[in-house]
Amino acid sequence: MKVLIAMDSMKGCMSSIACGNAIAAGLKLASPESSAIVRPIADGGEGTVEALVTGFNGTFQEITVMGPNCTPVQARYGIIQTEDPKLHTLLPTAVIEISAAAGIALLDEAELDAMETTTYGVGEMIIDAIQEGCRNFIIGLGGSATNDGGIGMLQALGASFYDKDGTSLSQATEDDDEDQSKDFILRGRDLELISSINIDSMYPKLSECTFHVACDVNNPLYGPKGATLVFGPQKGAFDTDLDALEEGMKNYAEVASACLSSNVSVENLVDPGFPGCGAAGGLGFAFLYFLHGKLEHGIDIIMRETKLEDYIKHADLVITGEGRLDTQTLMGKAPLGVATLAKKYGIPVIAFAGSIDPNIEANDIPNIDAYFPILRKEITLEEAMRPETTSINLTHTSYQVFRLWLCKKK
Question: What is the pLDDT of residues 144-172, one digit of tens each?
């Protein structure tokens, strides 16, 4: 029997590959003659860098960049080798989670302020990856603390922004010290001041780059379902700040449209209502129109880049899962994507989870034939989240499931 195992990570506990290996150990106990193929999987959110770097034997890069509140942070991204579908050669591909430089987890609750946060560090990560030889990018947009429409990132990449008087919003003078220079880093508050944008001086090698952007929300840039009004409050924006940011986004889109109309073909003109533009506080908009990125469901990008279909179609059984199966799973998370792909070939799918939402019924998750929680006794959350505990639970649960599966096959 050949089993394909593609588990999402158990967030804060075990990586995708570690989970898969623990399940494979259970299979070997139940059926030593069976084979297990463990493949990395993620949905573009937390754990994507670790999953792909580990699964592809890639490397981690750690650099110091500007954090969301304009103080330095240590940010990590990955470099893996992926195949160029046209040239059939390996390409160095950068895997970046924008939360490493602009994430909400980098700030205390008291520090959250969507008017004052920036995506500048994301641009610094992209430049570093280009200098490391990467021209292909996988970008995960989840978990941002920002609502700047991506202007901080674009500034770091060399774009210039001007107010109505033609004064640069984004350039410190030689007389400014380091602390004063931070005042010129663009953030949410600057959106309504932008009157013109110049992209002629953007980092030249950007034109050689391809950006695959994991974007699992359909929010437009502005409006009732836009970046500011939907996500702004969780990033510290309320009342007058929300109004200012919303008007700023509208202004930014209008100015960007005028800027881009002379630089791109007519069919690529700005449509701020395009689904996904509002992701990560408007970063989706910046990637789509300024960097010509392609916004896709995260799981679709990861499955394609890891060539998961080539492994699934030869399997007798597929195992997937994540830390918790719940309503979020139904919205395009990794297990659902894996299961849907498996059913393309009529392959049975079993899911494992650390816990399962009691409101999820047996047939609620499409294409998953059965799912199993891995806890074997009542324990504290802290104990359940220990990697050694999770590993043991995964192995023992998979052992019992495979014993039953093999019994059924006899």
Answer: 999 999 999 999 999 999 999 999 998 65
> Biggest alpha carbon distance in the chain?
80
Query: What does pTM read for this prediction?
Result: 0.86
Tokens linked to 203: 């980092």
> Taking 80 as the threshold, does the pLDDT of residue 368 lie above it?
yes
Non-local CB neighbours of 100 within 8 Å, separated by 6+ positions: 49, 73, 75, 76, 77, 121, 125
> What is the layout of strands, in order, in the sheet containing 90-97?
59-66, 72-83, 90-97, 136-140, 210-214, 294-296
Q: How far apart are CA 399 and CA 23, in angstroms?
A: 8
**Which residue, chain included where needed, has tokens 């978990």?**
143
- Alpha carbon distance 348, 117 (integer Å): 46
Portion of the chain with pLDDT greater than 90, in percent: 69
Residue with tokens 């029997």: 1
- Provide the mean pLDDT of the chain: 90
As a whole number, mean pLDDT of residues 19-30 equals 96
Query: What is each CA distance from 258 to 191, 251, 261, 268, in whole angstroms?
Result: 15, 11, 5, 12
Of 167, 139, 163, 166, the C-alpha closest to 153 is 139
CA 128 to chain centre: 19
Sheet architecture: strand order including 349-356 = 35-38, 2-7, 317-325, 349-356, 370-373
What tokens does 399 get?
């052992």
